[in-house]
Each structure stands twice: as structure tokens, then as C-alpha cells.
Amino acid sequence: MNRTSRSRTRTPRLLGAALTAGALAVGTVLATTSSAHADTLFSDTFSDGAADGWSRSGGSWSVVTDGSYAYRQSGTSSDARALAGAGTWTDYGVQARVRPTGFGGANRHAGVIARAQSSSSYYALVVTASGGVQLIRRSGGDPVSLGSAPAGITVGSWATLRLEAVGSSLRGYVDGTLRVQATDGAFAAGRIGLATSYASATFDDVQVDTATGAPPTGTPSGGPTLPPTGPPIDPGAPPVGFASVHALGQNGTTGGAGGPTVTVDTAAELLTAIGTAGPLTVRVDGMIALPGPMHDVTSDKTIVGVGASSGITGGGLNIGLPVSDATSPPANAVHNVIVRNLNFRNTVDDAINVQMFSHHVWIDHNDLAYGYDGLIDVKRGSSYVTVSWNHTHHHTKNMLLGHDDRNAAQDVGNLKVTYHHNWFDRTPQRNPRVRYGDPVHVFNNYFVYNTDVGVACQLDSGCVVEGNYFEDVEVPWSISYSGDRGRMIARDNVLAGTSEPGDAGGTVQEPRTFYPYTLTEPATVKSVVTAGAGTGRLPY
Q1: What GO molecular function terms would the record report (predicted)?
Q2: Exposure string (b/e) for 227-256, b if CB count within 10 Å is 16 or more?
Q3: pLDDT value at 405 more than 80
Q4: 512 in catalytic set
Q5: Which residue out of 430, 433, 435, 537 is catalytically annotated?
């Protein structure tokens, strides 16, 4: 199958013959046969600041900074198209995040294109001026509506649109929910694209793949992803990894233990609870819509969802003090915070951000998708963090550890983080992407169909990558992903459908010098993690 990958966010990796024996991972790599997975035909995050390969017709197109680099069409006085890909593509899904910014009239729209024969002949799934979505066919003249549905999309807000074309079946999804479908045989194959009709909009995270029939994860109703059947988790069990270490005056991570418990089901109640001083366990009952972007969490908090379907949409959680140039931990650094069993959806910035020397944070058994920036970012000198048993999906820029090449003054000696038993489910990059962290322990995670890179370890960071299961991952790990190299020990990892593991080398302090841990047998990690990661495992 013809494959064009354009997730251009870094300098070229070392692949194939460029890998020397000295650059290979330390330890044993267990190679297994591949199972079939959908192919990614094309992706573009515009993170290189360019839009090479797109052919434009009408409008005013440019790559701009809209939180991160994105592709904007700023005119509202004409039709505009940007096309990419191959005219021979037949059955596929095209997906992008779309942010309408203005409509020149009541019957105007912006969205994604499939099976384009030309700039005036194609199918499209579009956001309309009324906030709904419409499935259209255009054959040289005015668009013909094949179906429409309300969607509640407002000007200035992001929505993920996905149009699938399989045979004569057309399906349109908004944020993972099937909203509209139709049958039409006008176009059997064609390119993908972005469309505005007398409207302005910004587009990001374009992806084209052959995983059609339904989103890879999620529910038809568009609610939080329900996990597969698996064993319940003991809520009283302590964390494994750096969050368990006695350091900086904190003995492990206990969250709100010893304090009262409150149950909240409104935004006002949740924000009051997470901002209250002193130990507190906050039970989140249902999906709570928060205004964006981020909301501060104070020390000694446990924030936990009730059941499998509770969580937060819109806003995210900020665990840390306001940004400053301080180079040593302040006495009032946020610490001892637990976030568990929550669904995070459609956050307008990060879903969870840990910053400014925050320490002893445990992020466990959450389901995170459809965010704007990072799903879980740890930065600015934070340390003693464990990220465990989370399911991340429907998102491109997954997890950062260290946010900037120029932040050594805060980060060197800190950013000690453990990632274990997470399910990195078709998240192309940052799984995680590490700067300066040392040591960083990545063990027993399930990586599946990451089309850019799994673990990227840069800027003198030190990573131990062990006992993970990598399935159809383009580059499972790398110390030469972008910029100055890091150090990495990679051992006992399973590679399924991946011929080149990436590059590793150098020395890293062993995690066992900080805490004890027991490895899950690497060959069983896929089944163990898919049965246990995400929400609905805790008896709350």
C-alpha cells in the first residue's frame, strides 16, 4: 500500500543501515510476528512551520501559531480548498481538528474533504454556520447535502471531524461520535483535503488512515470510552515508581488521605474543592464541563472519578505554581496529588499539566482523548511522578517530559518520572518525549501504531525502557529524535511488526536504586494492559 507519512516534527531519525551495532539498544529485544493493523496513509501536524505538499485553490492559506503550529484559511469572501495525498486512495478515513473562526453568511461551512477528484468535485464533512455538521457532495456546482445533524460547535472552538468513505458508505464523526451517514456512489477514489466556503477556519493534526467502520476506541454515543472487562484494582495500594519515593520531605504519595471526602457534580463545586487548602478526597460524579484552559490544584488532594464514565471536559488540571524563573524548589511547591479514574475530553490546553517543581504526583487509571495540546505534560523542575495504567487515544501530541531545550536551569537533576502499564493507543508522538529527565523509567507499557516515535530521549536525559510491548510502531525508541542526544538503556522489549527498534546507548542510573518494582512478563503486556488500563477499575 502506498504510504505517505508527513508527521514532520523533528529532524530525520536514524533508520535502517544508518543504525550501527554500537547504537543498538542494550539488552534483549524479543521480536514477534506482526498482527494486521490499519495503515496510516498521511499525517501532518504542521509542526515544522510549513505546509509542503498541499495544493491550494482560493482563499488565503498560511501556517500560523494557534497554541501550536496549525494551518489557517483566513478569508471569508470565496470558496477555498487545500488538497493533499493520492488520487488512487479508495477506502479510508480523513480526520482533522477544525476551529471555525468566521462565516460570511448563513449557508457557509468549513471541514474535511475525502475522495477529491478536483478542487470542485469531492465529498466533505463540514461545520456549518449554525453549529451543526453536514455531509455534502460537490460535483462542480453548488454543494448537495447528503445528511445533516446538530453538533453544538461554536465559532472559536475546536472539534475533531472524521469523514470515512468505504465503498458507497459515508460516515461523519464529531469528537468520536457518529453524527451523520449516507450512501452515495459518485466518487470511488480521490485525494483528501480541507475546505472552507465563505468561511475562515484553522486546521491541525490531519490524519488519513484505513481504520474505518468506527473510531478505534470510544462508544457510539460519544461518551467516555468504556474499558474491556478486567480485574478491579485495590484503591488502597500505593503507587509504584517515583511517586512512591521518600524525598523532598514527602513520604510517598498519599493525596487526600486523612482528610474529608466530598462528592462534586458541578463545575463550581469541583473548582472549590480542588482549590481548598489541606487534605481532601474529591469524588467527581459525572462528566463536568469546565471553562478553559487550566485550573489549579492545591497540595494533598485525591481527585477520583465515580464509576467508569465520570471526568472533565473543556478545562484541564494544573498541578503547580505559576510559571517563574526560579531555579530551586520553593517551600510551597504543590505536592502530594493523586488523579485517578477520570475521563478527560476536549481540553482547550493540556488535560493534566504538572509544573514548577511540583512533586509526588500520581496520575493513574485515567482515559484521555481529544485534547488540544498535551494530555499529560510534566515540566519546569517537577519530579517524583508516576504515570500508570492510563489509556490515551484520539490525540497526536501525547506526553511531554521537559518542555523546552533552554530550560536546563530548572530541569537538570529533576524530572524523575515513571511511566508504567499505560496504553499508548495510536498516539503518533511524545510517548513520552523527554528533555533533561534523569532517570526516566518506561516499563511494561503497550505501544500500538504510533506512526512517529515511541520514547524519544533527548538533551542528556537518561531513560530506561524495559519490558514494553511495541506493536506496529514506526520507531519504538530514539536518542536522536531531534536536537542533542540523550542516553538510553533499552532491554527486554517486545517488537511486533517493527523491524528497526531505533537507537540507544550511554549509561543511566538504575531505577531500582530508587524503588522496588516487579516486571510483568513482556510477552503478556499487551493483554494485561488492554484489560487493565483506563477507567472503571477502581471500586469508587
Answers
A1: lyase activity
A2: beebeebeeeeebbbbbbbeeeebebbbbb
A3: yes
A4: no
A5: 430
